[in-house]
Amino acid sequence: MKTIFGVLSLLIVVAVVGTMVKKQLTGVTPISITQQEAGQAAAPASAPQGNAQQQSQQIQQQVRQSLDAAMQQARPVPEDK
What we know:
Layout: H1 2-26, H2 35-46, H3 52-72
């Protein structure tokens, strides 16, 4: 009897956690990159200029710019509130 209650409570916990995970994963939307952004990011990388230090600084600047652009995008507000 004790074993049956243990297994049932474990199944209930797994079901609750599963529904919570499913709800969280459906709220995630993929980030889309426009053609213009993709072209801007690919053009400098295909034709690097200068020495290794300058190339490294250019890459770091490109990463910062792309992160800033990604952070400026509005997050979708959940509708279940």
